[in-house]
Design a protein that fits this description.
By secondary structure, this protein is an alpha/beta fold. It folds into 2 domains: about 5-315 and about 395-485, ANL, N-terminal domain (Rossmann fold, 3-Layer(aba) Sandwich), CATH 3.40.50.12780; about 505-630, GMP Synthetase, Chain A, domain 3 (2-Layer Sandwich). The chain has a 7-stranded mixed beta sheet, sandwiched between helices. The chain has a 5-stranded parallel beta sheet with strand order 7-6-8-11-12, with helices on both faces. The chain has a 4-stranded antiparallel beta sheet with strand order 23-24-25-26. Strand 19, helix 13 and strand 20 form a beta-alpha-beta unit. Helix 4 (about 90-105) crosses helix 8 and helix 6 (about 145-155) packs across helix 7. The longest helix is centred in the N-terminal third of the chain and has 17 residues, at about 90-105. The protein is globular. It binds coenzyme A and adenosine monophosphate. The site of coenzyme A has 26 residues, from strand 9 and helix 12.
């Protein structure tokens, strides 16, 4: 079938409000919107102003009421614990009500924040839905972050409650979460009233009397009581969650997601972009701590009445590179969404795709990739081995759903390798030079979105409206700055080439090199430092730190480098994958003192580079090159 994309995009362009009003009919509202879009509200306007709704109701209750009660809502597959479990929509409702009752009993009310610090277990999704049910705002923190990162989030979100578990399970080790939680609570200035901790059989933990509550005990009591906890009507514009993402400093940005626009956009995307139907099995192999996990492990598939797979494992090593194919085959997954790095990891261990041949993948229809640039080699490999279309799509924590993609449900567009295809309805894209002037087609520039952003995209940063405007809206007035650079070709296809800020992408995880520099600068022997992302075959990029030592320091540089590596792991967490630091005499700078990180990166990656005209001392670049080659 030929794609209806151009027709649908044109319809949106002609009348955005009519487009989203029509999409909104897929959602059950307690009270419909007074204005589909209110341009006067917020920094750039707000969607579905005046409406009231509840996200949990739309994800769970309405499916139970309309015949999906016995359908699996969540399939939990955990090769790291050797367990599998299917949870029906009816059971999900019971579990969510039980947890919602506990939260209410502990004094959590509409608008209060709850931090969820949990591994990939169904209780994490139940916790998110329970918060949504009572109108509390959840903030999920990824398990790979260190205690101080968790503490920063506690201080910013000021939650009154935290839901956690005793441990997470990595293939190489059991990660004790509770000591991290305790340390974070100690470090944070804001004090929570209580925690709810799920004891996992792999590692039990101590509970602090009067503060920590046992998840299983309270859930058993709540199930027994079977209290009916109705879905709290919230404003469509009320926050559903805050998700912290890396910014250009060590202070993460609290991306706010509202209830109404988020539901409308995600529901629309499930059919139009992913071509999934209610009742089908959808799997996003990510983590609930990332935006992909929020949108497409939990909310998108459940809004659409799908079965979602919640996977606790890795693409390789749990136990082998055939795990993805086993899950697709066993649970009859129609659509898989993951990061290219996962496929590079699989390809690295099974280059000929021998494991693929062991499984029946006949009902598997599409593979979607996002989180980092999908390199054509990986796409070709996946297409060849799996025999299904492989769809790259580009989005950000801030937007919550696809900015540019190939909307399979509208009819697949011709694929151009290296491009995530075309802007989705809702996104009017321009490519601007640094002065804000449009560049010619196929010329590289700043990728920006004309305001307003569509439903589902963030309206602001948590408690930081000014930072929101400064970081995203002020540089190019009238636009949202994506901080990605790239170009649009003659056919309107976008190509995303690089970040324009200090963000690097490590195994699909977004990290700030500025944040790592802040940590390294704390080392007593470090006078100055720079962190860059260097190319890595499997992870895409890995960080590398350059340290200039204080005058007079004559300790063994290797020792200092090991301490620097340990410091980043301790302060940011293992997820930073910071394993390489080098001591150098000086850092290359412009005459005005700016560190030439981009040139350093090109040298590290063995790419062609030009001597920057403004460089202070060209000899320093040779020193960097020598340090990288170990001389
Ligand atoms: N809790 C605690 N530690 C965690 C963690 C968690 N939830 N997740 C990762 N870590 C740790 C890892 O154990 C590792 O520690 P190590 O340095 O002791 O080995 C470190 O953080 C880095 O993890 P990761 O970047 O995931 O590397 P990896 O080598 O363990 O796995 C991949 C690499 C590619 C297999 C894995 O990153 C992956 O599956 N990524 C694709 C899917 C994805 O998550 N995408 C995100 C957005 S779509
Ligand atoms: P995150 O907020 O963690 O989802 O990371 C968003 C960033 O990841 C984007 O700004 C891009 O730099 C990068 N990214 C995500 N998806 C893609 C993609 N399909 N192609 C290129 N870059 C991507």
């Amino acid at each position: 079938m030929s794609s209806k994309y151009h027709e649908i995009y044109a319809a949106w362009e002609k009348d955005p409000e009519a487009f989203w009003a029509s999409a909104a009919q897929e959602i059950d509202w307690f009270k419909p919107a007074e204005k589909i879009f209110d341009p006067e509200a917020g920094s750039y306007g707000r969607w579905f102003a005046g409406a009231t709704c509840n996200t949990c109701y739309n994800c769970v209750d309405r499916h139970v009421e309309t015949g999906r009660a016995e359908q699996a809502a969540i399939i939990y597959d955990s090769p790291v614990t050797g367990s599998r479990k299917s949870i029906s929509y009816r059971e999900l409702l019971q579990e969510t009500q039980a947890l919602a009752a506990i939260l209410k009993d502990k004094g959590v009310k509409r608008g209060d924040r709850v931090i969820i610090y949990m591994p990939m277990i169904p209780e994490a999704a139940v916790a998110m839905l329970a918060c949504a049910r009572i109108g509390a705002i959840h903030s999920v923190v990824f398990g790979g972050f260190a205690a101080s990162e968790l503490a920063t989030r506690i201080d910013d979100a000021t939650p009154n409650f935290i839901i956690s578990a005793s441990c997470g399970i990595e293939p190489s080790r059991i990660v004790a979460y509770k000591p991290l939680l305790d340390e974070a609570i100690d470090l944070a200035s804001h004090k929570v009233t209580g925690t709810l901790v799920l004891q996992r059989e792999q590692l039990a933990c101590d509970l602090v009397e009067g503060r920590d509550h046992d998840f299983a005990t309270l859930m058993a009591e709540a199930r027994e009581a079977a209290e009916d906890v109705p879905c709290e009507p919230v404003a469509a514009t009320d926050p559903l969650y805050v998700l912290y993402t890396s910014g250009t400093t060590g202070q993460p940005k609290g991306v706010v997601r509202d209830n109404g626009g988020h539901m409308v956009a995600l529901k629309w995307s499930m059919k139009a972009i992913y071509d999934v139907n209610p009742g089908e099995v959808y799997w996003a192999a990510s983590d609930v701590g990332w935006v992909v996990g929020h949108s497409y492990i939990v909310y998108g598939p459940l809004l659409h009445g799908c079965t979602t797979v919640l996977f606790e494992g890795k693409p390789v090593g749990t136990p082998d590179p055939g795990t993805f194919w086993r899950i697709i085959s066993e649970h009859k997954v129609e659509t898989l969404f993951t990061a290219p790095t996962a496929f590079r990891a699989i390809k690295g261990q099974d280059p000929d795709g021998e494991y693929v041949k062991k499984y029946d993948l006949s009902h598997f229809r599409h593979l979607f990739l996002a989180g980092e640039r999908a390199d054509p080699v990986t796409i070709h490999w996946a297409e060849d081995k799996l025999g299904v279309p492989v769809i790259d799509h580009w989005w950000q924590t801030e937007t919550g759903w696809t900015i540019a993609g190939n909307p399979v449900g509208l009819g697949i567009m011709p694929v151009k390798y290296g491009s995530p295809t075309v802007p989705m309805p809702g996104y009017a894209m321009d490519i601007l030079d640094d002065e804000g002037n449009p560049v010619a087609r196929s010329e590289l520039g700043n990728i920006v979105v004309r305001l307003p952003l569509p439903p589902g995209s963030f309206p602001t940063l948590w408690n930081a409206e000014e930072r929101f405007r400064d970081a995203y809206l002020s540089e190019f007035p009238g636009y949202y700055k994506t901080a990605d650079a790239g170009y649009m070709d003659e056919d309107g296809y976008l190509f995303i080439m690089a970040r324009t800020d200090d963000i690097i992408n490590v195994a699909g995880h977004r990290l700030s090199t500025g944040g790592m520099e802040e940590v390294l600068a704390e080392h007593r022997d470090v006078a100055e430092c720079a962190v860059i992302g260097i190319a890595d075959e499997m992870k895409g990029q890995v960080p590398c730190g350059f340290l200039v030592l204080n005058a007079g320091v004559n300790r063994n540089p290797d020792e200092i480098c090991s301490e620097a590596v340990a410091l980043v792991r301790e302060k940011i967490g293992p997820v930073a994958a910071f394993k390489k630091a080098l001591v150098v005499k000086r850092l290359p700078k412009t005459r005005s003192g700016k560190i030439l990180r981009a040139t350093m990166q090109k040298i590290a990656d063995g790419q062609e580079w030009k001597m920057p005209a403004t460089i202070d001392d060209p000899a320093i670049l040779d020193e960097i090159d020598a340090a990288l080659s170990g001389n």
